[in-house]
Amino acid sequence: MRPIWTLEEARQADQEAVSSGVPYPALLAQAGLQLARFIQARVPEGAVMFLTGPGSNGGDGWVAARHLARRRPVTVIPIAEPRFPGAGDWIAAAKAAGVVVGQNPVSLNGAAVVVDAMYGTGFHGSVMESPAGPWLAALESGGHPVIHVDLPSGVETNTGQYDGPELNTLATLTMGAVKWGLVGYPGAEAAGPIVVADIGLPGHGQASFIDPEWAKRHLPRVPRLGHKYSRGHVVVIGGSRAMPGAPVLAGMAALKAGAGLVELVVPESVLGRVAVVPSLIVHGVPETADGSLQVSDVLSRLAARADALVIGPGLGPTAPTALIEVLAKIPVPAVLDADGIRLYAQAPKAFGANWVLTPHAGEMGVLLGMTSARVNADRRRAVLDAVHATGRTVLLKGMFSIVGSEGGRLMVNSSGSPVLATAGSGDVLSGMTAALLAQGLPPDQALALAVYWHGWAGQIGEREQGLSMTADNLLDYFSPARHALEQEEEPTSVTYWD
Ligand SMILES: NC(=O)C1=CN([C@@H]2O[C@H](COP(=O)(O)OP(=O)(O)OC[C@H]3O[C@@H](n4cnc5c(N)ncnc54)[C@H](O)[C@@H]3O)[C@@H](O)[C@H]2O)[C@@H](O)CC1
Ligand SMILES: Nc1ncnc2c1ncn2[C@@H]1O[C@H](COP(=O)(O)OP(=O)(O)O)[C@@H](O)[C@H]1O
Ligand SMILES: [K+]
């Protein structure tokens, strides 16, 4: 279990620890010690400057400063009057250990690293208007390397809202468990690599990261006596004159993720442009005047043969709503992506059982009737609302993609790479998900495994091709990514420190 906490859950963990007999100062002591160890390991030499705030985030800084002062020059610059529990004693001990207290105005020059212990989970409002504002501006212009304690100061714990500058961030050492703000936007950018320090708090919560060990266990295996039908039959419904390639990408991804048989159902006028890959079976079916798929008996018959459907890749904006209504009556699990989601938003009563939706922030906005900016302002809330509104498993794509399923259970993906932000990469994900559904995984598990595997393929693609990686190249990395999953390799965006 690698939980992700809201503010309320962080406070609850804190209270549980205290009521189980751990005194609060012991938690502060443990947080400060872990912070000192982390700084020492990450930046072993040179002067350390701590910027400390009024609350316990500042307290973590004071305790760490005391430990480090035995080894190297340490200065603490309090940006506000300390009010954390036991402040007087902790500060006296730090001074006795040789910590120098900087007086305003003070320069940050000469610091090998600056530790941001100004605000943590107790922050609310605009950081640039708070006492931390001028310090963040100085850190931005000086380019000093920074380690953040718990959260970058100013990042809102539940959402990741942040109005401060981008800094030269080495890492964020977060206490007990990752907070939602670190995987929200733009908090995730401000946080840099996230490192979780074990401070002895209980480790449960409503949400968790997709676990490498879990992913390995759920990878589909090919039975020795398997045949192509037993490995799962995927039918991809999509394509239009402007976007004939999208269903091909989804179909190839389904094959490469282990489906035994993949068929594409596309408008008949694009058949010649789609029937280019020998491993895919392609059917041209009746279309509308502008070349989008339309409802037909042959389409329904082909869809009903599948173990899982992908509905939407390259479908185009003019496909008729009736398409989704007809497909919803076919009792086959399906992935709705791209224009499939837009159609669904127009006919939201057309619920297919075991359908999953894979919107990016823009498509999520269409589902929820809001802008993509509002979706990204509170991604966790958007997923919970979409699950509530649809009763289906929903994936919100992007860095730290979130899978939400019934009962409000949330899983966050920590694999991935910004090179995945390339046209067609979502089509690849939808095909991969359908292959896993076709092989019998329940919707939430199929989505979680697909997003984790897809993210790993992106990471390996980035390593091999950098910014030049395209969605069709991504298919080549399914196999090395599967190997990474089998080895239980850890994504580097979130690591655990103990
Ligand atoms: N939850 C836990 O069990 C533990 C928490 N610890 C640390 O404690 C932190 C939380 O401590 P606190 O609750 O004291 O919160 P903070 O340390 O984040 O500080 C809250 C203080 O900042 C002030 N403040 C908030 N927003 C402001 C604004 N816009 N302008 C000016 N002042 C503002 C508040 O009035 C309050 O005095 C965590 O982030 C973590 O670093 C650890 O020390 C140990 C264990
Ligand atoms: N910055 C990023 N970091 C990690 N993954 C990303 C990032 N940007 C996009 N992705 C992933 O790439 C895929 C893009 O999907 P989508 O937006 O539907 O693209 P398209 O419609 O072009 O296929 C999603 O899986 C998404 O999570
Ligand atoms: K901080």
UniProtKB/TrEMBL annotation:
Give binding positions for (6S)-NADPHX. 56-60, 120-126, 150, 246, 314, 360, 427
Keywords attached to this entry: ATP-binding, Isomerase, Lyase, Metal-binding, Multifunctional enzyme, NAD, NADP, Nucleotide-binding, Potassium
GO MF annotation terms: ADP-dependent NAD(P)H-hydrate dehydratase activity; ATP binding; metal ion binding; NAD(P)HX epimerase activity
InterPro entries of this UniProt entry?
CARKD (IPR000631), Nnr (IPR030677), Ribokinase-like (IPR029056), YjeF_N_dom (IPR004443), YjeF_N_dom_sf (IPR036652)
**Which positions does UniProt annotate for AMP binding?**
K397, G398, M399, F400, S401, G426
Task: Tell me which cofactor or cofactors this protein depends on.
Answer: K(+); Mg(2+)
Q: Which GO terms describe its biological process?
A: metabolite repair; nicotinamide nucleotide metabolic process
Q: How is its cofactor bound, per UniProt?
A: Binds 1 potassium ion per subunit.
The Enzyme Commission number assigned here is 4.2.1.136, 5.1.99.6
Annotated residues that bind K(+) are located at N57, D116, S153
Q: Which domain of life is it from?
A: Bacteria
Question: Locate the YjeF C-terminal domain: which residues?
Answer: 211-485
The family line of this record is:
Belongs to the NnrD/CARKD family. In the N-terminal section; belongs to the NnrE/AIBP family.
Its subunit composition reads: Homotetramer.
PANTHER family associated with the record? ATP-DEPENDENT (S)-NAD(P)H-HYDRATE DEHYDRATASE, ATP-DEPENDENT (S)-NAD(P)H-HYDRATE DEHYDRATASE FAMILY MEMBER
Function comment: Catalyzes the epimerization of the S- and R-forms of NAD(P)HX, a damaged form of NAD(P)H that is a result of enzymatic or heat-dependent hydration. This is a prerequisite for the S-specific NAD(P)H-hydrate dehydratase to allow the repair of both epimers of NAD(P)HX. Catalyzes the dehydration of the S-form of NAD(P)HX at the expense of ADP, which is converted to AMP. Together with NAD(P)HX epimerase, which catalyzes the epimerization of the S- and R-forms, the enzyme allows the repair of both epimers of NAD(P)HX, a damaged form of NAD(P)H that is a result of enzymatic or heat-dependent hydration.
Q: Which NCBIfam families match?
A: yjeF_cterm (TIGR00196), yjeF_nterm (TIGR00197)
What protein name is recorded for this chain?
Bifunctional NAD(P)H-hydrate repair enzyme
What is the organism of origin for this protein? Sulfobacillus harzensis
Name of encoding gene: nnrD
